Amino acid sequence: MGLDLLGGGPAWWWLGLMAVGGASAVYGILQAAMASDLKRLLAYSTSENMGLVLIGVGASGLFAAYGDKPLAALALAAALLHVVNHAAFKALLFCAAGSVLRATGVRDLDQLGGLRARMPATAGLFALAALGAVALPPGNGFISEWLLLQLLIHGLQVPGVAVAVVLPLSVALIALSAGIAAAVFVKALGVGFFARPRSRPAGEAKEAPPLMLAGMGLLAVACGALALVPGLLGDGLDRAVGATGLPGSAAVSGGGLRVRLIEVSATLSPLWVVSALTAALILAVGLPRLYQRRRRRVNVRLWDCGGGAPSPRMAYTATSFAEPLQRVFDDVLAPEQDVNVTPVRESVYLVERVRFQHRVPDRIEHRLYEPVLRALAGTGQAARRLAGGSVHLYLGYGFVGLVVVLVMLAVGW
Questions:
Q1: Percent of the chain surpassing pLDDT 90
Q2: In terms of Cα–Cα distance, which of 129, 128, 140, 145 is closest to 49?
Q3: What are phi and psi of 246, to 5 degrees?
Q4: Alpha helices for 4-140 (secondary structure H)
Q5: Are 234 and 253 spatial neighbours (Cβ–Cβ below 8 Å)?
Q6: Which of 135, 154, 315, 345 is in Cβ range 3.0-4.6 Å of 264 for a Cys bridge?
Q7: H helices of 190-249, where?
């Protein structure tokens, strides 16, 4: 719309788009960090990823407004690549969440746990998709966020005060959202899959049927292909960017196993990155085990200070895991809590029960969407009065509409 149909636009258009994208990325991932509902967590993560896409699209228009069209083409290619990567790993995450819901009937992370042992295939597929969501190798989200950061950093060479101020802020927002995203999916995996089961449905969960696993396996293959051979999309991205009127020819190239950014002289091979990380992991795990085999091992019971084995109530829940982060962003999230103390009838000094409620509402949902929806519902209720069932009244509506159209045509509108 902005580059092709409208022929570009002033820089403030694109600055506004980048601001909306940055706010969406940070606010969405903060709400995901507070969510204990697994599917709600993933939905807010989508808001974060679409915010990153908007940052890329806004940067593309900003560079085009300042006359650097090759860098604008690269920014748009990064945004499109992240759309494709997000479609793969988020679809896998939602399918894995659906598998958990089918097996347990529960979406609340505080009521889950122990699923790694009972649903190992689902847990592994969820972990693979989570790597893409937090933009860590070998996740497929890594290459597109790396590309986005590359163009924002190299875009500082474009002259202009707005560019010099906005691009470092965008890099900081992307880094902040990526850090919080890591905490979000550590919470989802740790509390939902690796902790001890906190409810009977979680303790009795069974692995998904083969057909569901096959569907998730296809998505996992797509995630792996996008992560290891992202260069296969280079030609397609260049054609898509070129269709917008930007000279995107060969902005992203280099073959299937690596990605080369011609305008900023940067090259990345995700396959080599994954190979190096795998070798480092093997050394980190293998060397200590080799050293331990040479020593005599004695199995003894550890001293537990008399406390006994920990119970599920002693482990972190999704709510308690997110509480430190909630305290840091207290002013942004505006949490609500209520303590209701009920005394016994005989004496106000004796307490029968204490009820504590704590929640983090979505301020945008409650202050923006809900008033608009209420206004639309009220308008719809009021509009029912127009449908009185009178044919003469309906003919009058048509006549008035025709007169209004004729008047508008007469005055040249």
A1: 30
A2: 145
A3: -90, 145
A4: 11-34, 38-65, 69-104, 115-118, 120-133
A5: yes
A6: 154
A7: 200-203, 210-228, 234-242
The string of DSSP codes covering 2-44 is TTTTS----HHHHHHHHHHHHHHHHHHHHHHHH--BHHHHHHH
What tokens does 304 get? 């537990």
- pLDDT tens readout for residues 253-296: 555 566 666 665 566 666 666 677 777 777 777 777 766 666 66
Instruction: State the pTM of this model.
Output: 0.80
pLDDT score, position 271? 65
CA 259 to CA 234: how far, in whole Å? 8
Query: What is the model's pLDDT at position 296?
Result: 63
pLDDT in tens, 93-115: 999 999 999 999 889 988 888 88
Residue 159's contacts (CB-CB under 8 Å, 6 or more residues apart) are: 66
| DSSP characters over 312-372 | GGGSPPHHHHHHHHHHHTHHHH--EEEEEEEE-SS-TTSEEEEEEEEE---HHIIIIIHHH
pLDDT value for 292: 66
Q: Is the peptide bond before 335 cis (omega within 30 degrees of 0)?
A: no
244 or 99, higher pLDDT: 99
d(CA 319, CA 339): 17
- Model confidence over 296-312: pLDDT tens digits? 666 667 776 766 667 77
Q: Residue 23: how many CB atoms within 10 A of its CB?
A: 14
The tokens describing 334, both together, are 């505006």
Query: What is d(CA 56, CA 62) in angstroms, rounded to the nearest whole number?
Result: 10
Q: Which tokens sit at 80?
A: 């499109």
**Cβ-contact 23, 78 below 8 angstroms:** no
Taking a C-beta distance cutoff of 8 angstroms, is the pair 86, 206 a contact?
no
